[in-house]
């Protein structure tokens, strides 16, 4: 029986659609953008 944490750990890593760098786990979803390419304050 997998815990919810195990489930999220097995999820594939997302990659930024702009620069292609790996995206760390984020609670918010602005599409597939890394922090570098996705600045809300910009
Ligand atoms: Zn990026």
List keywords for this structure.
42 residues, little secondary structure, two-stranded antiparallel ribbon, elongated, binds zinc ion, YhfH-like, ArsR family metal-binding transcriptional regulator
What does this entry show, briefly?
It comes from Salirhabdus euzebyi. 14% of the residues lie in helices and 10% in strands.
Question: What do these coordinates show?
Answer:
By secondary structure, the chain is low in regular secondary structure. It has one domain. 14% of the residues lie in helices and 10% in strands. It contains 1 helix and 2 strands; from the N terminus they run H-E-E. Strands 1-2 form a two-stranded antiparallel ribbon. Strand 1 (14-15) and strand 2 (22-23) form a beta hairpin. The longest helix has 6 residues, at 4-9. The model has no long low-confidence stretch (mean pLDDT 76). The structure holds zinc ion.
The topology string of helices and strands comes to HEE
| Largest beta sheet: strand ordering | 1-2
Distance separating the two termini: 43 Å
Number of strands: 2
Number of domains: 1
Based on Cα principal axes, name the global outline.
elongated
Strand content: 5-15%
Low-confidence stretches at least 5 residues in length (pLDDT < 50)?
Answer: none
> Roughly what is the average pLDDT, rounded to an integer?
76
List ligands, each type once: zinc ion
Give the biggest sheet: 2 strands, antiparallel
> How many whole angstroms does the radius of gyration measure?
12 Å
Organism: Salirhabdus euzebyi
Pfam families: YhfH
InterPro entries: YhfH-like
Protein name: ArsR family metal-binding transcriptional regulator
């Amino acid at each position: 029986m997998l815990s919810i944490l195990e489930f999220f750990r097995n999820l594939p890593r997302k990659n930024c659609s702009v620069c292609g760098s790996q995206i760390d786990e984020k609670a918010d979803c602005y599409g597939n953008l890394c922090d570098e390419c996705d600045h809300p304050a910009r």
